Amino acid sequence: MATEIKATIFKDAETWITENMPYLVADNVCSISRTVFSPLGLTKYKDYETGEVKMLSMQDHVNGLRLLCEEIDNKKLFVGGLKNAIELIDAGNWDAEVVDAYRQMCFYGKVIYG
Known about the structure:
The protein is an alpha+beta fold. The protein has helices spanning about 15-20, 60-75, 95-110; strands spanning about 30-35, 45, 55. A three-stranded antiparallel sheet has the order 1-2-3.
């Protein structure tokens, strides 16, 4: 029988997202754009490929971060040269590729582009 041991990566994901969102910058090839981040309300996101627009809550951002961590740790997503999800704690490790994947996780619940 295999024993699974889990560790906390983000003790307070909402605070981390709120404090670090200004540093999570996309480039011009990012498929999902967003307006000014609103931690207490809804933030408008747009998929430039489809034109679809969604208003995302803080819970959507937390879910996206959780999915990003899981996909990286399960070796299903390889972005930004990250080897494991613990590296996401440092916003300096979030290049445009990681930000793009995160936005797609928030918007779609999975990475559909790239």
